[in-house]
Amino acid sequence: MNKRWFWLVFVVALVLSLVLLNFLANYKLKPFYLEYYEVSCSNQNIGNPFSDKDYGEKANLCRDSGGCFVLCGSACPPKQRLSILRTFDFFRETGCTEVCVPQCVCKYRYEFNEKYGCLK
Fold first, then answer.
1. pTM exceeds 0.90, yes or no
2. Which pLDDT tens digit goes with each residue over 66-104?
3. Residue 62 main-chain phi, psi, to 5 deg
4. What is the DSSP code (8-state) at residue 113?
5. Please, what's the b/e burial string for 43-81 (b: 16 or more CB within 10 A of its CB; e: otherwise)?
6. Do 71 and 35 touch, CB atoms closer than 8 A?
């Protein structure tokens, strides 16, 4: 009986620590993404997406749904939210090749949908 309690407490402590770690990672992610959004959306002097036929519709959809379309965004922007199982990915050192990608940058907690624009 004593071993059962020990394992029960151990499992509960492990689950609680994962949940707390996930909250911490998401708390740290928010300022990174807000800064990314602010920099991306204030630096729109690199071309006009509305004049380009390939990007015009997507740019309008992006703008109308509350985002901003940039012709030169990062290929790997910061994540907006992590699930508990992917929390450890946040703490790993990962490299990212800097390339210019046309994209819609949505507000925090919104993701771009090709049909509807920025959705929560």
1. no
2. 898 888 888 878 777 777 766 666 666 566 777 888 889
3. -65, -50
4. E
5. eeeeeebeeeeebeebbebbbebebbbbbebbeebbebe
6. no
**3 state DSSP class of 55:** helix
**Residues 6+ positions from 60 with CB-CB distance below 8 Å:** 50
**Helix-strand-coil split of the chain, %, nearest 5:** 55, 15, 30
Q: Which residue has the higher pLDDT, 56 or 12?
A: 12
First-to-last C-alpha distance (Å) of the chain: 47
Phi-psi region for residue 47, left (φ > 0), alpha (ψ -120 to 50) or beta? left
